[in-house]
Amino acid sequence: MIEPVVLRPRFGQVLCVAVWAIIVVCLVSLAMVGDGGKSLRFAPAFLLVAYLCWMLYWAPAVKLDAAGVSLVNIARTVRITWPAIATVETKYALTILTASGKFTAWAAPGPSRFTTYRASRSDLSKLPESTYGAGGSVGIGDVPNSDSGAAALRVRRAWAQLQAAGHLDSGTVEGTGVEVTWHRWQLIVLAALVLLTLAGILI
């Protein structure tokens, strides 16, 4: 069985914590100054920045479980069952190809040059067979110490495990499609904060 796992970029989490800490300091400073009018005017702007940070860098994730892979992106979640996966790519980010199209994970971007330089030969050995290209080559985005490479490694290993056990052919793992769910409430909250911020600026 596939153990449930949630993958998020550590850099995004650290960035969010830093931004939120700065926002708290700013809000506390405004409150200590005692200017209630400014606090009310600028509070929505600070909350908008905090919320955007959460939407962009904390909420997105790649989730794996026994039924499939979920790509939690900014505006929508794409749920892909294991039998629906045709191949996994990492050219610019973790991308899963299916008969319904290809879907990219915001939470698993490709690596920087610094990350690729740090990769050793041992890092590129014993990867799932589907990782390697012609002549045993490995793409830059497949480097395991990158966000895209780490996510791709997890997906490929689980997918290969299910294939080797015959579960995808036997129907043990059901579903052959893709389900897209839009984050309506998150988008509504974002729109509300934008309107409140504009109102605070114009008043």
Topology:
Layout: E1 5-7, H1 10-33, H2 36-58, E2 61-64, E3 68-72, E4 76-81, E5 85-89, E6 93-98, E7 101-109, H3 113-118, H4 147-164, H5 167-170, E8 178-182, H6 184-202
Antiparallel strand pairs: 1-2, 2-3, 3-4, 4-8, 5-6, 6-7
Helix pairs in contact: 1-2, 2-6
Mean pLDDT: 84
Largest sheet: 5 strands, antiparallel
Helix-strand string: EHHEEEEEEHHHEH
Give the overall form. Answer: elongated
Tally of helical runs? 6
Structural class: alpha+beta
Task: Walk across the major sheet and give the strand order.
Answer: 1-2-3-4-8
Q: Please tell me how large the radius of gyration is.
A: 21 Å
List keywords for this structure.
single chain; 203 residues; alpha+beta; 2 domains; five-stranded antiparallel sheet; 8 strands; 46% helix; elongated
Describe this structure as you would to a colleague.
- Helix content is 46%, strand content 21%.
- The protein folds into 2 domains: 8-59 and 184-202, no CATH class; 61-182, no CATH class.
- It is built from 6 helices and 8 strands, in the order βααββββββαααβα.
- The mean pLDDT is 84.
- With 203 residues, the chain is an alpha+beta fold.
- Strands 1-2-3-4-8 form a 5-stranded antiparallel beta sheet, with helices on one face. The protein has a 3-stranded antiparallel beta sheet with strand order 5-6-7, covered by helices on one side.
- 25% of the residues are buried.
- Helix 2 (36-58) packs antiparallel against helix 6 (184-202).
- The radius of gyration is 21 Å and the shape is elongated.
- A hairpin with a 3-residue loop joins strand 3 (68-72) and strand 4.
